[in-house]
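pasting input
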Amino acid sequence: MATARQTADIDLRTRLQDWLPKLVLSPSVAAILVFVYGFIAYTIYLSFTGSKMLPSYDLVGFDNYATLFGLSAWSTALINLSIFASLYIIICMAIGLLLAIFLDQKIRGEGLLRPIYLYPMALSFIVTGTAWKWFLDPGIGLEHTMHLWGWESFKFGWIKDRNMAIYTLVIAAVWQSSGFVMAMFLAGLRGIDNEMLKAAQIDGASNWQLYRRIVIPLLRPAFMSAFVILAHLAIKSYDLVIALTGGGPGRATELPATFMYSYTFTRNQMGVGASSAVIMLMGVAAIMVPYIYAELKEKK
Amino acid sequence: MSAATQDTAVRTGRITRTFIYVVLIFFALFYLLPFFIMMINSLKPLSEITAGNMMALPKEPTLAPWGAAWSTAQIGVEATGLKPYFLNSILMVVPAVAISTVLGALNGYILTKWRFRGDTVLFGLMLFSCFIPFQIVLIPMARILGMLGLAGSVQGLILVHVVYGIGFATLYFRNYYAAFPTELVKSAMIDGAGFFRIFWRIMLPVSGPIAVVCIIWQFTNIWNDFLFGVSFGGLNAQPVTVALNNLVQSSTGVKEYNVHFAAAILAALPTLLVYIVAGRYFVRGLMAGSVKG
């Protein structure tokens, strides 16, 4: 009798132990399924409805998408994003690679320089935007200072110029993220086997050839990661635009993220706003899904 | 990490080295300049800024702009300074970071040491949630928070940040625990140790570094968040980033640049301090969030 009860006890305990992990995991899984994937499904659904100020459930097919791609504000946002994203990614990588290679030359004071390059990454984009907005303001910032220093003809009014304002966004964003890219490349460089480089050198390779032919190709994974991170950051850019230019002058710095917010919450075109969010998600998914898939497969 | 001992194969001449140092120092100045300018101008009276040179050191240094930014500056309709919003941010950040880190640790433990069918897919789903553009969840989140009665409350923001923080927290702990020998866990199981006992006695004692990485990452992200704060903060729960933006963008009255700068530095101070104190872990968190998925 006693032994039977004991076995039952143990049975219960093992079964509980079997279930416990799944039980503990379930709140997180439920939260992700509801708040991420459920919400995505809901927004996709809304993008096919005639929702205006409040969600409504009358399906209108692809009308919102047709409206969206007919809007000049949206095409402006897409063009701006393509300019911003490509320059942001290219310049961040160029600066990041340059600094990483230079820092890797047994530099005295590396321990001091590295954190200086990286600290902007700890700041909020709102803080970055506040600092740069003022620095770039011709009336009081850089242009004004140059005039005071006697360079009367110096002009730097990009932030007020419809054609140039998008580049100010690039400057501030590069300032914020390029140090991070440097850190990624530096980690990549430190992982390269030096013996291989020495062998190439004995064979008479110059420094330039060494980097061009051996080091940079070996950094492929770092390039890949940097690209993925920067590209998805660019698509999501919102705070910096709000703080630096507010999307202006005119619509010169409107990006999909600011478009989505204003159409959904201030212009009461929720259906159109939802469809723009879906397009943004598709952009991010196109970049992230293959990357995550590859990373997870590699792990197995 | 053996920067000093590693013998680099690349040999550089004196001129090249000078050039390298010049470039490195130039960039150091580039990164430091905006913050330096904010700092010196936050210590000037307004007249000195509008009449003078932004690069000049303050002639009559004053802490008045800092005082104003903290407690009397006009933000929105009230002249409260950043103080109440700073408090909102703290009330939001502390529980959100704590909860998401605990969940991340448990999830990582389960996904590596109590594996089951489909766990990789589940983790993939969690991982993707780290990178979604949050615009895709804004509309339903606004409705749900309204239905739960959490709209415009700190609790609502805590919920939002916990939910969207689970992914990264799980990622950190999973990758960290994956390297921890499963045999130790197995033998503890044979000795009769249960789920929580193993977590408590075996996993947790070795989790210090990754917990620091995770806490710093979540803290920085949540403190710096603007989109959720401006969407769901309402009037009473606005975090400091939203308040800073309202202060700087306000179109009424004289633009008090010195106060704006002091406010910007105040808003940046917590994450900056964390970075200065534990920068190593911050960098590790950044890398773990990107290089290794």
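fyi Residues 67-299 of chain A form a domain with the MetI-like fold fold (CATH 1.10.3720.10).
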